Amino acid sequence: MDTPSTDSTTYPESGIPAYVNDTLSAVTPSLAGALGVPGHEDLLGAGRARAAAFLLVDGLGAQLLARYADHAPTLAALARGGSVLRAGFPATTAASLASLGTGLSSGEHGVIGYSFALDGPEGTPQGPVMSALGWCAHAGPEHADLREDFPPESVQPHSTVFERAAADGVEVSRLVPGFHHGSGLTRAVLRGPGRFVPAEAPEELVPGMLEALRGSGRALVYGYHGDLDRAGHDHGPGSDRWIEELVRVEALVSDLASDLPTDTVLAVVADHGMIDTGDHRIDLDHTPGLLSGVDRLGGEARVRHVHTEPGAAADVLAAWREALGERAHVVERDRAIAEGWYGTVSGRNRGRLGDVVAAARDTWTLVRSEAEPAQTAMIGHHGSWTEAEQLVPLLLLRSE
């Protein structure tokens, strides 16, 4: 076992983000600013345009793109002329999608991880731990749908950039897989007037985005591609299967870039990077010392929210620090908030963070083989503070 430490404070060299113009929360407000939507500033230099689009390539980390540039020359060339953002914390799809959809940090919009604890219904103190991607109960065999008891519009009440753009007369289109339509997460972070167009593959995504951009009026178009992320989780980032998907992403972006309508700006971004965690696993379900005094666990394999039993927070903090040592940053909730991990944390979202927050370091994972068998079996993971997880490319293309 590694030498225990009572306090781990070494974060990436680039530090905790400022959540101004250095994270994903700046992307859609900048595109709305480029379209002239009131109250939005073009922080990222997109430039004024009639139409704006952003393509989210799930899992395309900046370091992975640089490492495998030979397989994606168009993307690599754009990256050399582009910039790098931080995903924000945690570096996970639900939180990043919410930041892109609202222009807010996770502490403000409240989607603070893959799974997180909700307030109980009708003011009761404790609700379930919810998996945000499915908007369902995280634990248990039935994974009950929570959209009725915990309406997404209440869990995340802030207006979306799509709503604000549509209110200013912008035609809004979202091209996403069919199962996204009407899902809890979509209602929470992508809601608003406009079109939802099913697009399961590049063959549907490219023509659909281009058609939505070709109108005569102002347009804001969102497209999502998730196959690269799935390949990384299942086979590992950099695996043959992952590289095959990277080549498909290269073709997708090349096709979009070659046919952009006049006076259009396209932003290609990712929601997080990814690391291969190998055998560096700590199984929380079979480490009794880490469960003593714990009421509920949220988060995911790279970041855990530890909700403690009454009066047990200090003991749980000490036990997790002692057991994990240099394998994780383990801090109390107040410190994570004070240090700005989640940006500004609103009062209504404070309780969604664990009393103790554990962010895995290096390539360690904090898995749960009994409660989360599918996640435990994954090869690729993301969520924590390493630059491989945090740094994402921002590729801007313009058609004059």
From TrEMBL:
InterPro entries: Alkaline_phosphatase_core_sf, Phosphodiest/P_Trfase. It comes from the Bacteria. Gene3D superfamilies: Alkaline Phosphatase, subunit A. It holds the Pfam family Phosphodiest. GO terms for molecular function: hydrolase activity. Transmembrane segments: none annotated. PANTHER family: BIS(5'-ADENOSYL)-TRIPHOSPHATASE, ECTONUCLEOTIDE PYROPHOSPHATASE/PHOSPHODIESTERASE. This is Phosphodiesterase.
